[in-house]
Amino acid sequence: MLHTSPFAVAFLGAIAAFAAAAPARAAIVEEVPYVTTPGNVTAAMLDLAGVKAGDHVIDLGSGDGRIVIAAARRGATGLGVDNDPGLVAESIANARRAGVADRARFLEQDLFTTDLSPATVVTMYLLPEVNLRLRPAILGLRPGTRVVSHDWDMGDWKPDRSVTVAVPEKKLGLEKSSRVFLWIVPARVEGLWCGRAGNRRATLRLGQAFQAVRGELREGGSAPESVTGRLDGATLAMAGGGQLAFAGANARATGRLAAYDWRRADGEACPAP
């Protein structure tokens, strides 16, 4: 995959600042150079996301199409998005040569206006500020959608997993390695949840910071109890055991909370018994 080189962008930023002071020099740089994602990093990105048949991969900034093509070779379908028409044409030709043109599409369009909702996996090798601009749209995707980024993170949304890949031929930076980060889009579970088991009642008020969840549980007239847990998509693993699997306004529990039927409150209080 060919992408904007972070080093080159920083270098161009310095050139642009210099050009602002000396406009006659502004024409020094007109093209943004690209670097190629090594094959072992491409494989690591798909491995970390667990890409397989049945997945639909959307690659933002798809360059020569290698990630989408590699995903298609695993039986997935994919869409590559790039704003360079030459690279889009090259990607289409590469997919045809690889025999996966029926499963790999490429479009020339703005990645910020791309509809990500069909994706089960989103891949990207962009820049930190671009990742952060994309983050709200990514967090709005279906819970469980996997997101993989090469080298750049998402600020205070910490990855669920990451790996380091040796890249002896890497020309940018001092380290001869690349980091690959994986996030799993968490369900939005903050708020008040009401549990009912016959005449028994419970409440669970949850706060959420991405996949980290903290809250307060009350069962009947008992004292409030602090609870914590971590979301993997739509499933909350509770510290101390048990899970809550969320599906819209309903949740199904295992462990100690399994006796209750759980539903998100319509307002600030649970219905009276």
Would you summarize the structure shown here?
With about 270 residues, the chain is of the alpha+beta class. Helix content is about 20%, strand content about 35%.
Structural class: alpha+beta
Q: Which geometry do the CA atoms define?
A: elongated
For the report, how would you describe the main beta sheet? 8 strands, antiparallel, barrel
Low-confidence region ranges: 1-33
Descriptive report:
With 273 residues, the chain is α+β, with helices and mostly antiparallel strands. 22% of the residues lie in helices and 35% in strands. The chain has five helices and 17 strands. An eight-stranded antiparallel β-barrel has the order 10-11-12-13-14-15-16-17. A seven-stranded mixed sheet has the order 5-4-3-6-7-9-8, with helices on one face. Strands 1-2 form a two-stranded antiparallel ribbon. Helix 2 (39-49) packs across helix 3 (66-73). The protein is elongated.
